Every structure is written in C-alpha cells, then in structure tokens.
Fold this protein.
Amino acid sequence: MKRRDILKGVGMAAAAAGLAACSQSGQNTGAAVADEGPRQWKMVTSWPTNFPGLGTGAARLAERITQATGGRITVKVFGSGELVPPFEVFDAVSRGTAEIGHSAAYYWKGKAPAAPFFCAVPFGLNAQEMTSWLRVGGGLELWRELYAPFNLVPFPAGNTGVQLAGWFRKPINGIGDLQGLKMRIPGLGGDVLQAVGGVPVNLPGAEIFSSLQSGAIDAAEWVGPYNDLAFGLHRVAKYAYYPGWQEPGPTLEAIFNKTAFDSLPHDLKAIVDACCAAVNDEMLAEYTARNQQALDSLVREHGTQLRRLPDDVLGALKRAADDVLDNLANSDPFARRAWNSIRAFRAQAQAWHSVSEEAYYQARR
C-alpha cells in the first residue's frame, strides 16, 4: 500500500472516530478512563490467514485500529489454528487469551441459543437490512446484552451479502433429494436442513474441500463465488445452487474482551467503533465487486453448473425455517426477543423495499 493511501485511510478513520464519539454505539458513557499507554493486542480468527475477503478483512481491521490509534493499540492477527482452533475464538477472547476475535456468531449457538440471530437468519435480513437493524433498529443493544455475561463486546465487522445456496455433488431436483444429504452448513441453516431430512455437518472452512473430495459430505455452503473459487470447491462438486436462503446477509463479528475494551479511554473506544464500521462496509463492497467476476470464471472456465433451487424445495425450506425459528423462540426467552425484533424490522424493511429497491430492480430490468 502506498504511503499516501495509508495516511488517507488513517485520516478517514480518525474523522469517522470523531463522529462515532457522538453516537450511542461508541459506548462512551460513564466516567473517563485514563490512558494506560500503548497496548499490544492479539486478534484470533476463524479464517485462514489472508484468505480473500474473510481473512483479509480481519487483517484490515487490525491494520486500521493500529493506524488510526497512532500505535496506541497495536493488533497482531493469528489465523485459524495459529493460536487457537477456529471454533474456540469465542472462548479465547472471553477468557482473555486474546483481546479481539473475528468470527461469526452462529458458531456459538451451543453457548447462547440466540447467537445465530446476530449473524444470519434463514429467509431473514439481507446485508443492508442487517446493518440497519444492528446499528439503528436495536439489534446491537440486544447483541451486547447477550454477550455481556461472557465478558465480550461485539461489533459488526464484515458482511458478504447474499450467499450461494451451496455446492452439491449431485443435482437437486426436488425436496426428496435433500433426504439424508450430508451438508456442511452451520447455524440456523443447519437446523432447517435437518428439519427437511438433511444431515447438517459443522466444519471449519479449511476442511470443506477434503471432506467433499472424500465423500464424507455430499454438499457444502461456504460463502460465495469469490471465496468458493479460492477454495477450489468446483473441483470436487459440479453443481452450484442459488439463492442463498440460509445466509441472506451474514454479519461477521469483531468481539472484544470486555475487560480490555472497558479499559480504553473514550477516544480509543470511538476509534475502534469507527474502524469496525468501516471494515463492515468495505467487506460488502469487496464481495459485491468480486463475486460476479469469480462466478464468470467458475461457469465459463471450469464448467460449473449454476442452477436455481426448485420452487418446491425453496417452499419447503421456507416453511421449515418458520417452524425452526418459532420453536427456538419458544424455547429461549432471549431468542424470542431477538426473533421478534428481527421479524418486526424485516416487515418494515420489506414494505419500504417493495417501493424502493425491488421496484427499482424491476424498472432497471
């Protein structure tokens, strides 16, 4: 990166920090905290080091915080498995082994049943709606309330946009083809697949290729063309299906050890908030720019068969999703609060988008 670009980035982040200091999401309440001097923090992630989009997004966040704070916080990134395994990020940050984690909330549903609501809800909010719900619609306050007992402070810090429905070794022609299908699919999407007769398998990204290749799983959803091409999933599964019903707007999280975060003076808290917000927007911009380029390569150069899921399959998945979400809400009081909040926000967003985004897409076509 050129020096002038770095300085420009620092300047923008500093300006954004000034604005964030005036916002409720900066957590600038309570007594002032004295600056203890330079801090050297560790960030653990669930992604391979420098993996396009996900890993580079985590690295970008670490770089932004380091630059925008003028080195008052220096962040060193550890990729998946370098310091802790990918599915131990939550615990590592909770207990202070690392001060920051970059991951996805749906990995922690075994610790907090409502956690997946803050990442991706099947047939739920898209990326624009998720960011709006979290930042303006009360979602972030709920998220922080949920994580507080674990000594964690979450921030939205990345979004990939609507994903593919997944990669399949065999074609899906009807709902019967999902019976007994072993698929790598985490979070609430996995619960929905199980409800229609499939077998969800939770695997870290680094194990997807080998599991598909060996036949240990029959299908997998990862992210989208940009990342799927990088992983070479087209080499072990011929069929790519859309739309990504299971993850319409998956939000990635930056989780901070609450003790470490609370030790920051107000200006550093505001800078951290601004850096997370910037990376959240930039990741979505990156995926919007790169996904179609990768999809063109997959179809034209590698012979991937891109197919839409049949209507009866989508209908069955939608009905199962409604049941799964209602059952979860009925079994956990916090899940009920989160689901009610998302459902109300979705109805509001849908009403507006019917005369804005959706109407414009129709007019453009």
Q: What stands out?
A: The radius of gyration is 20 Å. Confidence is low (pLDDT under 50) at residues 1-31.
